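Our consortium's second objective concerns turning raw sequence data into structural hypotheses that experimental partners can test. To show how far this objective has progressed, the report includes one record in full. It was chosen at random from the queue rather than selected for favorable results. The single chain below, 224 residues long, was entered without modification.
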Amino acid sequence: MPNVVAYHFGNLTAGPHALRGKWKSDFFKNDKPLILELGCGKGEYTVGMARRFPDKNFVGIDIKGSRMYVGAVQAIEGNLTNAAFLRTRIDFINALFDENEVDEIWITFPDPQKEKEKKRLTYPMFLQRYWHVLKPQGIIHLKTDSVLLHEFTLSVIRKEQHELIEATADIDQSYPDENHVLRAIQTAYERRFRGQGMPMTYVSFRLRKEYAKDVKVFPLTLLD
């Protein structure tokens, strides 16, 4: 599909993807802000935000091609030239995006990894990789139903001395306007959890300056 890019295990020995550092110029062919959705699933947020913000570029990332196919089709049918999808492991983010190339990162309803802390997408090893692709002052957003992941992320922010922008344990109470982006766009997981009466949580933060300056993230090493 014209709006889908793939980078798999076999690409590791070949080096970085040809679009690394060139997503705006070569793929989107503009200089608009670049926003990533990590673990995009069916791409509800990628497609929803692309519709709401035509002045920004969005890339949904997931390893499940069958899921992102749904969002990719919707983007094509909606003529959303500012929405793309990337099939890869999030471990490989530094092979696909260059330093200071990304303006924001959204993490929407990821697996909380109850038994494997190091696999949580807000674990420090992941944050170090994000730091290298984010522009200075770039924002990370986490929206989740998991109290465990919400509180874990807040603890990481405190321990690693990052800048907390906002945090709420109940999006509906904090944002009564149903048209707010945090409420109006809902993933399949969110609709399911809402049906069970579970509150949705949200955190936004900036990574500390020079946080991972001395951390080597490329060439790639897999996160176990």
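The partners drew two points from this record. The chain is about 30% helix and 20% strand. Strands lie at 4-6, 34-38, 57-62, 83-87, 102-108, 134-144, 163-168, 201-206. Both points have been shared with the crystallography group to help prioritize constructs.
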